[in-house]
Design goal:
The strands form 4 sheets. The chain has a 5-stranded mixed sheet with strand order 8-10-11-13-12, covered by helices on one side. A hairpin with a 3-residue loop joins strand 10 and strand 11. Helix 7 runs antiparallel to helix 9 and helix 11 runs antiparallel to helix 13. The longest helix is centred in the N-terminal third of the chain and has 71 residues. It is an alpha+beta fold.
């Protein structure tokens, strides 16, 4: 798959996932907002109902005695009959002018009784006069009742709020009203006066929790004078849990979307890595083919020359052909070792033959061996092996290859503008560790490439130089071997200034 195709698919999928997540988040926010509004409306309705019930209780308290007295004196408590007579008749109670009391029951059809009451009979006239008396009594009693109600309004607010709205009664009313509205959840409440001073509160009430965004306030007895108003303040400690529990069904869908997004991102990353690895392997194959082609061609040409009788008769020619065959064979063997290093790199864990060696001595011998190659290019190499204790437990062959690889890179990436200079040093570190550095004054490494140089098949760009050969395996091999030996390797570099590799190994425990 082409790279731009992967990018197009990536952009489309990212846009789709982002849109899906935005829709889900928007939907969840709307649901939460609706749930909060429904909850708030329910609570406010419950508080209004509680306030109404408390007012009704107080009115009932004041009127019970007064109403009973009024009813005992009211003319309607006397059996004067109903407004509409029944089949059993209508009964009158009256007192004569001489002081005699009498009861009179008139039975018959309701229509006839109504005619009788409104007629010109003695009873009818008496009934009319009685109605006038009762009407005047009623108006009087109504005036008394109005006085009682005005008295309630004037004196009720002077009663202690604890008597007007008992704590247990308030809790019971709140519980009943909230349960009726389906809001079965714990709550805390308090009753405050006009100044905001708490008159009483529930056991778990905390003023810090009863903030404006979490509490609901209802005026109790709103007809009281302004200076004597009291307020019922309620908050719900588990309101958030209650709200989000109602939308918990959305959490799995949101989680699955996040998981799919993570899987998609991981898949895209793997796809790009695989594509990059494929490109690197193709480069590796091309480089390997080119590197193998030259020595094989040289050896083949030398073999053809040996078939010439004239060449076989010339010792000088034979010596030259022998030298060519030997050099090209070494070159071919070196390339094969590079490929073998790659196979070693692919293993989960290298098979190492650990032994205790003196790193100072081994590095010194490597420097002496490599000195001829450095001097061939007009450079120089110095060794400053200052470590007092250089005993490390390593595989000597792989340790030697590591140092050779670093020195070989210093030669490969030398600067054409100045003579090559390589410095190899060692020093003691705290914590029973040894530091070995290989520094050069070559072309350096760009900052963007520094974090990739230990990747397999990665090769640093050399600009206009085309004489640097290789497969991009050397530093990957170095990194793996140092890690297998229990050490670390880091690099410091500045472009067009030079590069320094720093190896840190643990000292031998013996």
């Amino acid at each position: 798959m082409k790279k731009h195709t992967i990018w197009i698919l990536t952009v489309l999928m990212v846009f789709t996932f982002v849109g899906l997540l935005c829709i889900q988040i928007f939907y969840m926010k709307n649901i939460v907002s609706i749930r909060y509004e429904q909850f708030s409306q329910g609570v406010r309705q419950a508080l209004v109902n509680v306030a109404i019930r408390l007012e009704q209780d107080e009115t009932r308290h004041f009127l019970e005695d007064e109403v009973s007295q009024i009813e005992s004196k009211s003319v309607y408590t006397q059996r004067m009959g109903t407004q509409l007579p029944t089949q059993e008749g209508i009964q009158y109670s009256f007192t004569t002018t001489t002081g005699l009391e009498a009861d009179l029951t008139i039975k018959g059809a309701p229509q006839e009784i109504n005619k009788f009451q409104s007629g010109n009979s003695v009873v009818g006239k008496h009934f009319q006069s009685m109605q006038d008396v009762y009407r005047s009594h009623y108006l009087y009693q109504k005036g008394v009742l109005d006085d009682v109600i005005l008295n309630i309004i004037a004196t009720a607010s002077t009663r202690p709020i604890q008597e007007r709205a008992d704590s247990a009664l308030v809790r019971r009313y709140l519980t009943q009203e909230l349960d009726t509205l389906g809001l079965k959840m714990p709550f805390e409440f308090a009753v405050l006066n006009q100044a905001g001073i708490i008159q009483y509160r529930s056991a778990g009430y905390q003023s810090a929790d009863a903030q404006s965004d979490n509490a609901f306030v209802q005026t109790l007895f709103p007809r009281d004078p302004a200076g004597r108003l009291h307020f019922l303040k309620v908050y719900f400690p588990t309101r958030q849990d209650y709200i989000f529990k109602s939308i918990s069904f959305m959490v799995p869908a949101f989680a699955f979307t996040i998981i799919l997004l993570i899987i998609f991102v991981y898949t895209i990353i793997v796809a790009f890595r695989q594509k990059k690895l494929t490109e690197m392997k193709n480069d590796f194959i091309n480089n390997m083919t080119h590197e193998f082609k030259t020595p094989i061609s040289s050896i083949s040409l030398a073999a053809q020359m040996l078939n010439d009788p004239a060449v076989r008769k010339s010792p000088a020619m034979l010596q030259q052909i022998s030298t060519v065959v030997n050099d090209e064979t070494k070159r071919l063997r070196f390339q094969v070792e590079k490929v073998l290093q790659m196979s070693l790199y692919e293993r989960q864990r290298a098979s190492l033959k650990l032994e205790e060696i003196d790193a100072n001595l081994t590095v010194y011998n490597i420097v002496n061996t490599f000195k001829l190659k450095v001097e061939k290019y007009g450079g120089q190499i110095e060794a400053h092996l200052d470590a007092l204790n250089g005993l490390v437990e390593v595989d000597e062959m792989h340790f030697t290859n590591v140092i050779f690889n670093l020195l070989d890179n210093a030669v490969k990436y030398r600067s054409e503008e100045r003579p090559l200079h390589i410095t190899v040093s060692s020093r003691d570190l705290s914590g029973e560790r040894l530091e070995i550095t290989v520094a050069d004054n070559g072309i350096g490494i760009r900052r963007d490439d520094l974090k990739k140089i230990f990747d397999k098949f990665f090769r640093v760009s050399t600009g206009n130089r085309h004489d640097v050969k290789g497969f991009g395996l050397g530093l990957a091999y170095v990194k793996k071997m140092i890690t297998e030996l229990g050490g670390t390797i880091t690099v410091e570099s500045e472009f067009n200034v030079g590069t320094k590799f720093i190896i840190i190994l643990p000292l031998s425990k013996n």
